[in-house]
């Protein structure tokens, strides 16, 4: 009996991905081992996959998190410098403090994008630090720390 329930749950999970789900009606299994199987299709929709607050849940995604992290870095220089120093060392923290305005000049335009992947924050930071004359290795360390800080600010 438990095998039927777990199989049904497994196949229902596959149904969310668009496959055909197989549901077994255990009440129709008789004592002489004849089984009736009912095959039905499962069409995922917002009502049967998510709860009632699906609209609120969908707002919290990758872009929202990245934008909030970028805002946190722009608004909280000392906090960002602390995270960068803790993750990549004192030299990266000093470079971030020295080139803070160059870093934020690269991050501010990202807030206007409709989709902001975390890698774009890395790229913008790296590009602006290279243009400001920072070495590639130091720019990479600071940009990677910025990418980490974005996830920690949320």
Automatic annotation (TrEMBL):
Domain of life: Bacteria
Signal peptide range in chain numbering: 1-21
The keyword Signal belongs to this UniProt entry's keyword annotation: yes
Keywords annotated in UniProt: Signal
Protein name listed in UniProt: Uncharacterized protein
């Amino acid at each position: 009996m438990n095998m039927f329930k777990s199989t049904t749950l497994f196949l229902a999970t596959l149904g969310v991905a668009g496959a055909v789900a197989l549901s077994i009606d255990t009440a129709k299994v008789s004592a002489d081992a004849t089984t009736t199987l009912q095959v039905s299709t499962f069409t995922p929709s917002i009502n049967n996959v998510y709860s009632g607050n699906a609209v609120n849940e969908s707002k919290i995604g990758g872009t929202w998190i990245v934008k909030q992290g970028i805002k946190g870095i722009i608004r909280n220089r000392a906090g960002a410098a602390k995270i960068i120093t803790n993750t990549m060392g004192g030299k990266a923290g000093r470079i971030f403090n020295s080139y803070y305005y160059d870093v934020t000049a690269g991050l501010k335009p990202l807030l206007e994008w409709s989709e902001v992947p975390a890698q774009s924050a890395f790229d913008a930071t790296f590009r602006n630090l290279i243009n400001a004359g920072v070495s590639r290795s130091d720019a990479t360390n600071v940009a990677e720390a910025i990418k980490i800080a974005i996830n920690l600010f949320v």
